[in-house]
Automatic annotation (TrEMBL):
Its EC number is 2.3.2.31. Coiled coil: none annotated. The keyword Glycosyltransferase does not apply. PANTHER family: RBR FAMILY RING FINGER AND IBR DOMAIN-CONTAINING (PTHR11685). Residues 15-214, 19-71 form the RING-type domain. The keyword Transferase applies. GO terms for molecular function: ubiquitin protein ligase activity; zinc ion binding. This is RBR-type E3 ubiquitin transferase.
Amino acid sequence: MQKAYEEWNRALVNVKQTCAVCTDDRGRSAFPSRITVKCKHKSNTCRACLSQWLSSELELKGWDRLTCPDCGESLDYNSVKKHAFQETFQRYDQLSTRAALSTIPNFHWCLKPGCGSGQIHEDSEGPLFLCTTCQSRFCIVHNEPWHDGETCAQYDKRRRYQANNSMRDEKASEKWKKSNSRLCPMCCAPIQKNGGCSAMHCGFAARCRVKSVY
């Protein structure tokens, strides 16, 4: 019985199959028996190409859209762990875990680059979020660094004031340009005369040296 089993294994090793991706002829052992638990076909993609496929699909489509390259069946967690490169699986595990945690009510991620931590912050704790890992402070109302010395209402009021001032300054600048400059007939850049004769040379760009009369 043992001898027959060994002979069967040797025969299986000698069987060649062509990979649908790289088109190389490989031994049957170079192919997974099934890529997902739902697949009803033998795999036409070798293990190396399958691992590369999963890496590409993770970057292009996201962690929750990984599928069998042969039939399109979705890969579950264990299938990805079995067939993906270690680095790819670690990235997949990180993304899937992050997605699961994000569905928890009142769960917030730390916004500091490189921290990667998160925690539950109840509404009763107010808008100030203090990361227990890196001690960074953020406002969960505005989703940005904490506005020291200001309540959320005061912060909003200041931002509106700054936005209105910026808009007024922009309008005043445009009005001044219209009153004190003319547009270059070639590139439409505003030209201002600051003395001399009426002949003007546009110097806005190296490609535009047009002469005009102011």
